[in-house]
Specification:
The protein is an alpha+beta fold. It is 50% helix and 6% strand. The protein has a four-stranded mixed β-sheet with strand order 3-2-5-6. Strands 1-4 form a two-stranded antiparallel ribbon. Strands 7-8 form a two-stranded antiparallel ribbon.
């Protein structure tokens, strides 16, 4: 038999308040994102304003006192005297709809006429895509209408490398034209810039470039036609054997082919360049490291005194208006506190990093120490998740260059004798060995592991391979040069 009953239970649980969620969100923002978030809050919260350069921020304790201050009873005017209007009454009587027009001297910037605004072309720049670049060339040339229609389908079927993905039959079916028309149009599109565009494979791409560049070396043309796959493997002896020529001639032909572009769309691909603005600066003055937070462009916030007076002496203001202002003031105060807390936390984390990695800041990457989040968290007495949020997507400018804060946390590689070394230092040393090797006798991964062991670094060959691949470096067989 089912029975309905009510029970009271008392239990404790962790709940993230909206204020805590906002603090966590601000903590993981970088300087530019924080600036945008503050600007958005300035637009949405009317009680929040930007302090001028010669004005200080509103003290937080004073603000809280003004928010919580009890209302003082207003003194009754003497008989026959008119009571002077309070600031609260002035606020209530303002015609907010016409406020901006009536008081142009306020800090709110007026919108300028469209004639005074800079043109969109002077404020917005965007790199043309490959399709836009090819379509622009198509408009400049005189194509028969059928071939022009086909050319648009060809351009639309190019992949990120600039190669034609669809077959001639597919394009003929899509455009409703004959295969002969598609072939004629394809030949003309392949003459467009960049060289080799609309090729169907690497062989055709390089052959088109050789023809446009006027390369007539028979060895180059034979390699492209007969044994390009063998050349890609850097097997010069195999190419020489297949063509019946010397290795030196193959090496010279390989240099010519190496100057061609295997990916015609390379200049039009990839993401736009991202310019990094450091969140922190570390300067070395004498024998000490000094930390400076980058507050450039970050508005200094304060509470508008007009709204503070509404809460302090707002007896005659309607309850709804007062409740609205009270809520907005609390939101603004919490934002200011969260920003201050964020800056203090970043400073503490950076201070701890400079203590652990002092040798790196003074001597360079070879002196980077192994470090994990727990070490810094224990040092500044905060949780590891807080340190992780602080060090994500934030950068420091120091005497050694610009680095993401995550860069200073590295796994350890054991030494044969002595303390462990940071993995980033080992990776940098591997890159240095490969960049300075004999190009005719490149170092194998096993040889690099042996050289590092001689240098007191105990590392396996597979680890060398992993680090080399992370540096986008080819294997020794593909790095070898003949000649």
């Amino acid at each position: 038999m089912l029975e309905l009953k009510q029970q009271l239970r008392l239990r404790q649980q962790l709940v993230m308040t909206p204020q805590l969620q906002q603090a966590i969100k601000l903590l993981q923002l970088n300087r530019l994102e924080l600036t945008l978030a503050v600007q958005q809050e300035l637009e949405e919260n009317p009680v929040l304003e930007e302090a001028l350069e010669d004005e200080g921020e509103t003290p937080e304790l004073e603000e809280e006192a003004s928010v919580e201050a009890p209302e003082e009873p207003a003194e009754a005017p003497a008989p026959g005297e008119e009571r002077e209007a309070t600031d609260a009454e002035k606020v209530a009587d303002v015609d907010w709809e016409n406020y901006i027009d009536a008081y142009p001297q306020t800090s709110i910037r007026e919108a300028r006429d469209d004639d005074d605004r800079p043109s969109l072309e002077t404020t917005l720049t965007r790199r043309a895509t490959l399709i836009e670049h090819l379509s622009w060339q198509l408009q400049l040339l005189s194509f028969p209408i059928e071939e022009e229609i086909v050319a648009k389908f060809i351009i639309g079927n190019l992949d990120e490398r600039g190669y034609l993905e669809a077959s001639l039959d597919e394009i003929a079916r899509q455009s409703g034209m004959s295969v002969e028309t598609v072939e004629r149009s394809l030949v003309r599109v392949q003459e467009f810039d960049p060289l080799g565009v609309a090729a169907r494979d690497l062989k055709e791409c390089l052959t088109i470039q050789a023809g446009v560049l006027g390369i007539e070396d028979p060895i180059v043309l034979r390699i492209l036609d007969e044994c390009l796959d063998v050349l890609i493997k850097r097997d010069f002896r195999g190419v020489a054997r297949q063509l019946g020529v010397s290795i030196e001639m193959v090496s010279q032909a390989a240099d010519v082919i190496g100057r061609m572009e295997p990916r015609p769309a390379r200049a039009f691909g990839g993401d736009e360049t991202i310019y990094i603005i450091p969140d922190i600066y570390v300067y070395k003055v004498g024998d000490e490291l000094h930390i400076v937070l980058n507050d450039d462009g970050l508005p200094r916030l304060r509470i508008n005194s007009l709204y503070r007076d509404v809460l302090a002496r707002g007896k005659d203001v309607s309850p709804d208006t007062k409740a609205y202002v009270h809520e907005k003031v609390r939101s603004a105060l919490w934002l200011i506190k969260s920003i201050h807390q964020r800056q203090r936390t970043i400073y503490k984390v950076m201070e701890s990093l400079t203590k652990y990695q002092s040798d790196f800041f003074e001597k360079g990457i070879n002196h980077l120490r192994p470090l994990n989040l727990r070490d810094v968290a224990d040092d500044i007495e905060m949780h590891e998740s807080t340190v992780s949020r602080v060090t994500t997507n934030k950068y420091v400018h120091c005497p050694q260059g610009i680095f993401e804060l995550k860069y200073f946390f590295n796994s350890s590689i054991n030494r044969v004798v002595g303390e462990a070394v940071a993995s980033a230092s080992v990776k940098d040393r591997i890159g240095h060995l490969i960049r300075n090797e004999d190009p005719h006798r490149p170092l194998s991964d096993q040889r690099i592991a042996e050289m590092l062991k001689v240098a007191n670094i105990d590392i396996a060959r597979r680890t060398v391979t992993k680090y080399r691949e992370s540096l986008n470096l080819l294997s020794s067989t593909k790095r070898r040069q003949v000649g």
